[in-house]
């Protein structure tokens, strides 16, 4: 009996090793599967129902609570955040083959669609009233688009100072204060729940941006080469790369286009 038990134990260990190796191949194919447990991954792999991934999405993505499936669950057409904000994919993703295969396609389409939406939203910032632009765009596009244009405006202020306008920074601070007042008025108005969350996050971002400029005014920071400016996170749309980049000191980072929904912000 002891030999039998030892034999069964060895076989169990071999089965466990084989199962672990199998799950690792799935995780290596779609690395986000590393964020969920073996049991959760097995529950996805053990069914032919593509909607079985839904209950695990918040572990797989930063803030995606639901995937929008097309007719017959044959395609993925949209993403919805935990706050119920939603965006549609520009290209439908076919639900075909292994789950790790079409989930990789979902991830790629998320980034591709958000790249396009962000580029369009950033372009139209200067062509519409800010209040209208905020209400028409996704929360993450509103935040990052505002940061891109704030960076551009600060650089423009430095240029105007070089051209002789020594009051340009103070005038820009007054403009930012006026924008903040407009956002406060929006919050006090009759807004939809999602729009209110969007504006609240933007207020936090705009207060931080205004405080930076007030510091520049106080300390007479009037050149773009000064460390006080170089040390800030500077969001730019790089026309040569046709993509968003983030600079800080000598560091340069590409924007990831991970769907953020309406997550709260610190700064």
Oligomer: single chain
Per the principal axes of the C-alpha atoms, what is the gross shape? Answer: elongated
Number of helices: 9
- End-to-end distance, in Å? 66 Å
Rg over alpha carbons: 24 Å
Low-confidence stretches: none
Q: What number is the mean pLDDT?
A: 93
**Share of residues in helices:** 55-70%
What is the spatial order of strands in the main beta sheet? 1-2-3
Largest sheet: 3 strands, antiparallel
> From N to C, what is the helix and strand string?
HHHEEEHHHHHHEEE
Query: What proportion of the residues form beta strands (DSSP E)?
Result: 5-15%
Overall SS class: alpha+beta
The overall strand count is 6
